[in-house]
Amino acid sequence: MARRIAEPYKIKSVETLSMLSYDERKESLNRAGYNTFLIDSADVYIDLLTDSGTTAMSDEQWGALMTGDEAYAGSKSWKRLESAVREVYGYQYVLPTHQGRGAENILSQLKIKQGDYVPGNMYFTTTRAHQEMNGATFVDIIIDEAHDPAVDHPFKGNVDIGKLQSLIDKVGADKIPYVCVAVTVNLAGGQPVSMENLKEVYELCKAHKIDVMFDATRCVENAYFIKEREDGYEDRTVASILKEMMSYSDGCTMSGKKDCLVNIGGFLAMNDEELYIRSRELVVVYEGMPSYGGMAGRDMEAMAIGIREAVDDHYIAHRIGQVRYLGQQLIDANIPIVQPIGGHAVFLDARAFLPHLQQEDFPAQALAAALYLDSGVRSMERGIISAGRNNETGEHNKPNLELVRLTIPRRVYTNNHMDVVADSIIELYEKRETICGLKMVYEPPTLRFFNARFAPLSENGELISEENRKMTIN
Length: 474
What we know:
Layout: H1 22-31, E1 46-47, H2 59-65, H3 76-88, E2 93-97, H4 100-111, E3 117-120, H5 125-133, E4 137-140, H6 161-171, E5 178-182, H7 195-207, E6 211-215, H8 219-229, H9 238-247, E7 251-255, E8 266-270, H10 273-286, H11 297-309, H12 313-332, E9 345-349, H13 350-353, H14 363-375, E10 377-378, E11 380-382, H15 384-387, E12 403-407, H16 415-430, E13 438-442, H17 448-451, E14 453-456
Parallel strand pairs: 1-10, 3-4, 5-6, 6-7
Antiparallel strand pairs: 2-8, 7-8, 9-12, 11-12, 13-14
Helix pairs in contact: 1-14, 2-11, 3-11, 4-5, 4-10, 8-9, 12-16, 14-16
């Protein structure tokens, strides 16, 4: 029998959680328009909405907050962050931003011109929005296996080299400012990219003088999967694998709120001095001085420490292990999820979970709402709502994947919390036919998953048939 592994940390401080009754949750959900993003955190029991900025920082990070140098220029804290990025990731030039989308904004403005194409291994919402707002067309070049939640492929985040070559042949390399490679791929279910594939992409792009820019938000998790799944890396440290990974790129955007283990902040990194000089000018316009960007000195101190803590082999093994602990319980109960289990979240296959609903009935949104109603667990939709509308036709984009993301914050919850989540999902699955679809009653013009509002399609306005409800928390 495999030996169980405990958390590689001990708890110094606790935060009391809200445990509302069913009726209280129902009222909160109604106020939020059945959008989990609009539920007050005070009304949430276990919050799996996102792993972005929800990390529990270490005692060393909290202590470092008191040493932050808030100088307007030339901050000591900035020098420590710059040094950490250079040592751990290997990039020469670094610009701090308030978070990852600040880096996306600057990169998109500088690299993209009207009529360009930006290929990527599946889109991410804000990344694609910045690309399109600056005149580019996003082209999905991920392998086909990534669009099938049931396919068990070790590297479902891989770029399809044939698709990339076809796009280059079709539009010309001069129309492709860079290839955006996510490591790992969030909307595919937290799926990794192999080192072999990263090398192939980089070599192809260099042959055509196209830059490769990583969305490096969860790159440490990607490195761990390479260590586990790719021949020749099993005896390497995660830190050394990560350094090699990043060498097959020309730069990256980073949301520090994930694998850098902090609550706010990000950066844009690169090796091209000319791009760095141009980026530095835009940082001043949109973020702040190049030596702090959108971050306070104390946050840069915490991030510098978090960057190094994240590549500790014991930490990342537990982090991935906890996600698997939840996912395996669901697999054992025959709950349809994206397989293999990803690095930062377990993704429910809402189409298979609620087969009686059409995609236009927003099954992932309905399932996320039902989960909160059942147990106070907050998750999020990653499907037709997140995909938005076609800019030309105005019709819904209809992704193959209609998912509910159960995102595990780093160093926050114990496996007992995961048990509560699993129990709620299993009970919901048993009464899945009683969950109705939703209609959209308010739709914002962009990134609608943040602020859209919904209502149940049932005649009596109930999301879950009342006679079948089971209150997990009284």
